[in-house]
Write a structure and sequence with these properties.
With 236 residues, the chain is α/β, with parallel strands linked by helices. The protein folds into two domains: 169 residues, Thermophilic metalloprotease (M29) (Thermophilic metalloprotease-like); 47 residues, no CATH class. 46% of the residues lie in helices and 19% in strands. Strands 2-1-3-4 form a four-stranded parallel beta sheet, covered by helices on one side. Strands 5-6 form a two-stranded antiparallel ribbon. A hairpin with a 1-residue loop joins β5 and β6.
């Protein structure tokens, strides 16, 4: 196993969701993400939490939309609601085997299913907004996801782990430093309705501020060179 998988699990449990002793943790994972799921499971146990693991086999949704009748499409099991209401933390690990597996699925069935589960989605959002539920989604390197990114599997794995700061000696500590900087920026934005981030030749930054968690910065980047450049930002 790639040792970075273990470090990613530590970050997901100890930083992203900050799992605490005695909390109930739902771990959902795709088949190909089982290695990461196992590491996450071990980390939650070591944190003193109460983990419950659910596997999401790749054939499940494909067969469901192929064979389910209207009654089955609309039915929502009681246990599905319990999974939304009874846990403090939800960790979802995505390890797609085939990102196009539902391309030929009946779109009307999928729309009906989404509508039938709408109340669960709303409940999930409400519990998340209130702080009752902490959750995170995380990709795990697979051939399918690498192909979508037009990379080899090794290249995609390196990209993912680097993006998550897993190559740092202390990924959790590194993210906490970013969080501190983010909190400083939020403190500045809270009392501003308009601001200019940066201006440069061939690059325009458009902005909008909306009320939510403090204020959320939405930036649209228009770059005529078709390449995105990370620039130091100055709030004025």
């Amino acid at each position: 196993m790639d040792m970075r998988t273990s470090k990613l699990a530590q970050m997901l449990v100890n930083y992203s969701t900050a799992v605490k002793n005695g909390e109930k943790v739902l771990i959902e994972y795709d088949d190909l993400a089982s290695a990461l799921a196992r590491e996450v499971y071990k980390e939650t146990l070591q944190a003193g939490a109460l983990p419950y693991v659910i596997s999401r086999p790749s054939w499940k949704n494909e067969d469901f939309y192929k064979y389910a009748n209207d009654k089955q499409i609309k039915h929502v099991h009681d246990v599905e609601e319990a999974l939304v209401t009874d846990f403090d933390v939800n960790i979802v690990l995505i390890g797609s085997e085939n990102t196009k597996s539902l391309t030929s699925a009946d779109s009307s069935k999928m729309a009906t299913r989404t509508l039938a589960r709408k109340h669960l989605s709303k409940l999930h959002q409400q519990r998340s907004a209130s702080g009752e539920l902490r959750w995170v989604l995380c990709n795990y390197p697979t051939q399918a996801l690498a192909q979508e990114a037009e990379m080899s599997l090794d290249e995609y794995a390196d990209f993912l782990y680097q993006a998550c700061l897993i190559d740092f000696n202390d990924p959790v500590g590194s993210w906490k430093k970013f969080q501190k900087r983010q909190d400083e920026i939020i403190a500045v934005l809270k009392n501003k309705d308009e601001f200019i981030l940066s201006k440069a030749p061939m690059l325009t930054l458009l902005y909008a501020v909306v009320g939510a968690y403090g204020k959320i910065l939405v930036v649209t980047i228009i770059c005529l060179t078709a390449k995105f450049i990370l620039l130091p930002l100055k709030i004025v």
